[in-house]
Amino acid sequence: MNIWSMTLKEILVTIRNKRAFIFMLAFPIILILILGTALSNNFENTSSIGKIHILYYEEQANSYTKPFHDFMAAVKKSDLSFEKTTKDAGKQAIAKAKADGYIELSNKGIDLYVNNTSGISASVIQGLLKGFSDQYNLISEVIKVNPQQAKQLMASSSPTQHIKYITLNPGKKPNSMDYYAVVISTMITLFGALSTVALVHGENIQRTADRLLLAPIHRYEIFIGKMLGSLFVNGICVLLLVGFSKYVLHTNWGNHLWIVILILLSSVLLATSLGLMLSYILQNSASARTIIMIFANTSALLGGSWFAIPTPGWINFLSPLTWENEAVLKVIYANDFTATIPTFTYNLGFSVLCLLIAIFSLRRREGL
Amino acid sequence: MNILELTKLTKKFGDFIAVDQLTLSIAEGEIFGLLGANGAGKSTTINMVSGLIRATSGEIQLMGKSITNNRHFAKMNIGVVPQDIAIYEDLTAYENVKFFAGLYGLRGTKLDEQVKKALEFVGLSDRHKSFPKNFSGGMKRRLNIACAIAHQPKLIIMDEPTVGIDPQSRNYILNSVRKLNEMGCTIIYTSHYMEEVEEVCSQIAIVDHGKVIAEGTKEQLKSIITDTKDVWVEVKNIDGLKLEPIQTINGVLGVEVSDNQIKINSDMGVNNLNAIIQHFITNQIEIHSIQEKEPNLESVFLTLTGRSLRD
Hints:
The complex is a heterodimer. Chain A is 65% helix and 7% strand. Chain A is an alpha/beta fold. In chain A, strands 2-1-3-4 form a four-stranded mixed sheet, sandwiched between helices. By secondary structure, chain B is α/β, with parallel strands linked by helices. Helices cover 34% and strands 30% of the residues of chain B. Chain B has helices at 42-50, 71-77, 93-102, 108-121, 137-149, 167-182, 194-200, 218-223, 243-247, 273-282, 297-305, and strands spanning 2-13, 16-27, 31-35, 57-62, 65-66, 78-81, 155-159, 186-190, 203-208, 211-216, 228-235, 252-258, 261-267, 287-293. In chain B, a hairpin with a 2-residue loop joins strand 9 (203-208) and strand 10. The longest helix of chain B has 16 residues, at 167-182. Chain A: The chain crosses the membrane at residues 20-39, 179-202, 223-244, 256-278, 290-309, 344-362. Chain A: Its main location: membrane.
């Protein structure tokens, strides 16, 4: 019962501390909005390439003529224009970057010329021509085995119908607002350690530590009460933040929200344990706060809270936020749970270590 | 019956002996004044009695039970009003008292009743929903008291409960001390204000260098130094005053001059006031006022310890 009284008191004291509450709620929302808006270009997935202009030259009527004309007719609908030209004019146009591609058709085969400066347009032409050649080769192979079947294939209306195009799906990716909603939420859990320090050292500052020790309450009841109070308040703050970003900012939290929340709560446990450990091993509140600020900011930097880190190295994985962000983003965008268990293990292991140190320190001292 | 008995109580911090074989008995129903200068061992003794620190050696018995083996019993029966105001600024007056009283096992209606009683006792019923940050110093001191008494302890230790407050709040607190005593509580009262101790305490102990050097009622303590008295003479102009003739007056033990005031220490058994006045008249020194002062606790303390209580 004393633990419950202690927990309830901590909850009341913390939620009435406006500064702490603003820091835990308003600050991350503002950060999500600012970073999500300011760095939106870094998360753009599509780009417009405009109309693609292609020149072609047919040496004479050859075996490619009919299939190629069918091909041109089919792809013209997709903002691609074809213009017949001469051999020299075609090559010069490419050299001067006046066309995106030049195709030469002869009995020997198909030659494609592109200008290196054409970039994506050149790649698109190459991809289309590769598709065409694959289809043509397929028909050639069919002729060798079954000429009757080949006729049917060549007579078919669409040039693309008999080739199965397989595109590599890059998967869903977060936009900037989605990304920062996740990484700021995980980051703010770490800063929750500051409020835990305030709860413990606050007893000394307000001179209530002795009054608590005078009462028939065990020091471990005080310890557990403080831990539960801090976990509750920091947990609620993170849940409110997730709720706000999901329903007001309409950010994506995926289809497995409860797993995401469990990961975030494990981070809250880590931060609370860290705060308790520093409170009990350091008598000075300012020192504890400084260490937490250094730890949380370094972790945020390494964990991609400010700028996304496409391929994190070993040093990034020293930060709990790298583990958490990777686990949460995988759950949201790939329904992939492989990083979830390692993240839980990391957070719980770190928490147990911190709590053991805190308990050991508590046992050695006479006061609170 | 003694509510508290300290026997050869000792506390050492390294080589420093803060409390040295202190022996003291406090009878039930007393308002017991504990006097001592800073560092005399008074707070250390209180901290050992309340269970904040452990004694190096010696025995503390509360209501006949050793507190070493009955910590829970001791905590349930002791209420401490600390010198520093120990309340939560972010909890209302009611919530503060409720939280601390709740730690003593009070629940439900009983808890609510006791909290209301305590707030009423200290005159904060009408401010029970207010936050202490909006309170005056005196109101905070009263809330500090309410937090210590809501669980109805048998022994209340008040450590400098009137520091830094206005005279009105001080009177309120002193009246509260008397009322608590009338309700059956035994009170240990420490203060730097000697007049407060004289006013409310029925029994007083003077502690110095970790030991009780004198103990008794205020009359008994004053009787220790009743062999002398002080006569204070304030004159208009001290020029021309010769001290040697005063010292030859029958019974005069010493003369001190400070500005226009002359303090004449004299034997209590000799009536020499007329001779002293005659000396000033003969020397044509105009007297503004003359006072014969009885010894007070301050002078007792000074005589016994050689220093002022505020040193």
